[in-house]
Write a structure and sequence with these properties.
The chain is an alpha+beta fold. Helices cover 29% and strands 19% of the residues.
Length: 295
Amino acid sequence: MSTPFYVSPEQLMKDRADFARKGIARGRSVVAVQYADGVLFVSENPSQALHKVSEIYDRIAFAAVGRYNEFENLRIAGVRLADMRGFSYDRRDVTGRGLANAYAQTLGTIFSSGGEKPYEVELFVAEIGASAEDDQVYRLTYDGQVADEHGYAVMGGAADVVASALAASYQPGSDLRTALRLAVSALGHSETGDRVVPVEDLEVAVLDRTRTRARKFSRLRPSRLTELLGDRDSGPTPDTAGDTEGDTGSGAAPAAGGSDEAPTSPGTDAGTSSAPEPTPYPVSDDDPPPVAPPA
């Protein structure tokens, strides 16, 4: 009988980490920015049917980058966990930290297991509180590590380049208009030059503490984005943004956005930009909250 091929544990973990990082880097970046009234999520995503940013519970949102089928499974698991905990105990017992810990355990177990490949995903789990000081944004990596982010955070794609653009102009306590312009400008920043991201290619959602409903998640439609962004050549200008246009029902999955180049690996969120865009489905504030499909 032949001797099995030996690979040291250090080399095995390094290879799995490199594999996951390469898959995540093929996706387009997602930006989370804390502003005066909540948390803003911005990503470049031409698809209107597949979402990268979704609602998990009343004050909790989920954003992801990487392989769509993998972070969609995580999103559904988060919705199920939140529904079960809120129904069994109390809605206040559903917290962003609890969901982040559950995701970290799942990702860490999968990464360290030799029986399956690691998940090529990175996640944001955000929860807003009664004030800006109570807001929480957690970033989870493919190997289950959790980081508590403050101010702004970027994952996927050219995260370092986008983060450097945010660091140069970010101001705590900004209004929605200023935060949105800053995030969109950072997404268009690259080492080769800056570009203007079309409004139609943006997916934007907020957790807004000023909403009177218990559910604070809302999507910003293209008409609202055009109003907020205005003439982007003039740069960010402080202004009162007002109420966002409601789209609280996030039953659709997080979107799979692609890189600017042709996809190199099927199944990642790098190849969805060429797909035809379906007609947007009108959604109102009266839509039911996201509920996971039955097992």
